[in-house]
Structures are given as C-alpha cells and as structure tokens.
Design a protein that fits this description.
The structure holds two protein chains of two kinds. Chain A is built from four helices and seven strands; from the N terminus they run βααββββββαα. A seven-stranded antiparallel sheet of chain A has the order 1-7-6-5-4-3-2. In chain B, a hairpin with a 2-residue loop joins strand 2 and strand 3. By secondary structure, chain B is of the alpha+beta class. Classes of the chains: A alpha+beta, B alpha+beta.
C-alpha cells in the first residue's frame, strides 16, 4: 500500500503597491508591525515578533513577561526576491526542532511600482509524523474559534 | 497513509470548498450542495473521498446524513493554517500600503 502522494501546500498570491525591496523589508525588518499579536505559542501575550536577518537567523516571538517563543529559523535569505522560513511549530503549538515545514515567500516586481507576493507553506504532511498530531485535537478544539475571532479583529482593525 | 491522503484529497478545488464549508460547522449533503456549481451526487462523491482521507466524519440524523470535519484528522491543522495565513498576509499587505502612503512624498522610483 506504499504510494507517494504530493500533499496540497497552502498557497496565497497577493499584489502590493510597492517595490520588491520595500515589500521584503516590511515582511522581515517590519515583521513586528504586521504579525498578528494574537498569535503566540507561550503563555504570555506577544510583545514583539522578530525575524533575524540572514540564513540561520531565528524567527521568534517575545512575550510581555520576557519569555521567548521560537518558531523556527531562516532557511533562505535572498533579498529582495525570496525568503524561506522553517516553521517548526507542531500540532500542539510547541516548538519541535525535529519538525521541518517550509514557508516560502517570493517577491516579484510587476511593472515599476507593484510587487506580486507568492506565498507557500509546504510539507504539511509532516505534521502527521509526530505523536503531537494525534493530540492536536484538544488544542484545536480549545483554540480555533477564539483565535480566528481575534485574527478577524486584527485584520479588520 | 491517512495523512498524505488527506492532503491529496484537498488538492481538488471543489472538494476543498466542500471541506471549507464544513469548517464553519456540521452540514447535511443538501445544505452543502446548495450554492455549489456541482450536482448533489457530485458533492456526495467528494464527501466520500474526504471521508476516506480521514478529513470528515458523518453520522445519521433522522433521514439524512450530517457531515463534519474529523477532529482527529490533520484537516484541522491545514484549515487553521490556511485561515491564519490569509489573515497574516492581509495584515502584511495593509502594513505595506500604510508605510508606502506614509513615505509617499519621497516615494522611491526604481
């Protein structure tokens, strides 16, 4: 029964009215200015969200109590065209160094004043490799509806 | 192979839409088919694939069958992330627009 199936990655495309340089800068250096504050994995509310520049840089959230919640690391850093981040948060919303799912963001100039963003979160089947996935149910049941509501208020606010 | 099957099942756009409709709560086949550009038997077929992939479960309720997202499946993680990134990227786009407007007088010309 062994067969290889390519899972469906999450893909998003959007266009913004700026250059790839500026878009890349807002995405990375300006990460804290747009990342939803409602999304954090620690107990403490999120005070600051950071993407450290360069391959090997860390991607993390700082809690208001000073705690640090690591999400992953930078796998590719090619400004202004491409950024690849490792998302290592498992189904229990815990950092798991053994889990590697990839978030790739491509910035492509459209004409002289716009940038197309091609976003992909892939290797999602790997969430199922750990016991964590089996226990994800409780976390999802508790948090999903509430979290989505918070996101809506952030996105609309 | 359940997990890999789950994601293959979601590669079809109509099937994904059926699945996403279930994200808001349990529905019967007739309710799911309403407003979709495919026939009710086609919706049933999609539900069969989703069920085999471990993404949805069903239960009888009177004379009809009600479908819901399988809370044990990986589908919830994917649905959650899909929604999460939608919101995060919207916030990113809004921040780009805001910072562009702010620096508008000196807007760089490439």
């Amino acid at each position: 029964m062994s067969q290889t199936i390519t899972p469906a990655a999450i893909r998003k495309t959007l266009t913004v009215r700026t250059t790839p340089e500026k878009a890349f800068d807002v995405f990375t250096a300006g990460f804290d200015r747009w990342w939803p504050k409602t999304h954090h994995i620690g107990e403490s509310p999120l005070k600051k969200a950071v993407i450290e520049p360069g391959v090997g840089g860390r991607w993390y959230g700082l809690g208001e109590d000073g705690s640090e919640g690591l999400w992953g690391d930078v796998l590719a850093w090619d400004p202004p065209a491409r950024l690849v981040l490792a998302w290592r948060i498992n189904g229990q919303w815990k950092y798991d160094p053994g889990l590697l799912t990839e978030v790739e963001v491509l910035f492509t100039a459209v004409g002289s004043s716009e940038t197309r963003i091609d976003f992909e979160h892939r290797n999602l089947e790997r969430f199922g490799d750990s016991d964590a996935a089996k226990q994800a149910r409780a976390a999802m049941d508790d948090g999903w509806g509430t979290i989505l509501e918070s996101f809506k208020s952030v996105a609309n606010g | 192979m359940t997990n890999a099957n789950a994601f293959a099942a979601l590669a079809d756009p109509t099937r994904r839409e059926v699945f996403e409709r279930l994200a808001s709560g349990p529905l019967a086949v007739g309710e799911l088919a309403h407003g979709l550009p495919v026939s009710r038997p086609a919706v049933s077929q999609h539900l069969k694939v989703l069920k085999e992939a471990g993404l949805v479960t069903d239960r009888p309720e009177g004379a009809r069958r009600v479908y819901q997202i399988d809370p044990h499946g990986l589908g919830q993680i994917r649905a959650w992330l899909d929604q999460f990134w939608d919101n995060a990227l919207s916030a990113f786009a809004a921040e780009v627009e805001r910072s562009v407007d702010e620096s508008d007088p000196e807007k760089e010309k490439p």
